[in-house]
Fold this sequence. Notes:
The complex is a heterodimer of chains A (222) and B (79).
Chain A: E1 2-7, H1 14-23, E2 27-32, E3 44-47, H2 67-77, E4 81-85, H3 87-95, E5 101-103, E6 111-119, E7 135-142, E8 146-148, H4 151-159, E9 163-167, E10 178-182, E11 188-191, H5 209-221
Parallel strand pairs in A: 1-2, 1-3, 3-4, 4-11
Antiparallel strand pairs in A: 5-8, 6-7, 6-9, 9-10, 10-11
Chain B: E1 2-9, H1 16-27, E2 39-45, H2 51-66, E3 72-78
Antiparallel strand pairs in B: 1-2, 1-3
Amino acid sequence: MRAAVVTFPGSNCDRDLAVAFETAGFEVERVWHKDTALPDNLDVVGLPGGFSFGDYLRCGAIAANAPICREVIAFAKRGGHVLGVCNGFQVLVETGLLPGALMRNAGLRFVCKPVALKVETELSAFTGLYDSGTEVTIPVAHHDGNYQADAETLRMLDAEARVAFRYCDNPNGSAGDIAGILSENRRVLGMMPHPERAIDPLHGGTDGLALFSGLAEALVSA
Amino acid sequence: MKATVHVMLKQAVLDPQGEAVKTALGALGFEGVEAVRQGKVIELDLAETDAEAARAAVTAMCEKLLANTVIESFRVEVA
């Protein structure tokens, strides 16, 4: 299985994300934002956390228009799997691959701590190894993680079971306590918490590992 | 010609930064500030000399990049 991890100027979780994919058995290729093609025979693209382009204009807005993102959008539209974590989630909403927007945290503070999440659906390649309703602990580290969408979009996400994770104790004011959402075909996941920071006992927890190993299992059997 | 773009959060969207500024103004003793909304102003120098063409181009720039129309509204002035 092959994963590509994109690096934008200002990405800082790209290496961690690559290590998480490798730990789950992926062969990982690192891709630069100016690249105009993704590697061949790719199973998943990872968009990492960080502060791409210094968060100028809006978080993720400049990265979403980087040359490589045209390829990521085309890859997703062909049915490819894409995981966007933190700044990667912000990039995904800016590309329009996921609905809604990520605004400044309601408390205006940068939040950086492990948080409890409820797994809302096991119906995706990313969440298949979790049981729906399970509580997991994954770190967050963001200033703009306040997920907002209009009432109709929020109803649709609920109705189609596209909320992947909800916060047990909302740290940022997100509508519906939403921490991560899936695309309509359930192959694009964007989430503010960092599963790649919870894959080794030295991290203080390994609740994020099942996301990567579950994805590997799902892609092998697909 | 010059174009000025005003980007504001839509009225229905809570503006946490505006709320914080309002609270800070109150703490400084400025009374009677009933609401604060914070936005941004973007100035562009354009080679285009036709006002309508410039307005159309800048509107496309807003829709594509300068504003996130999920949460923001924008206004274009051309001079």
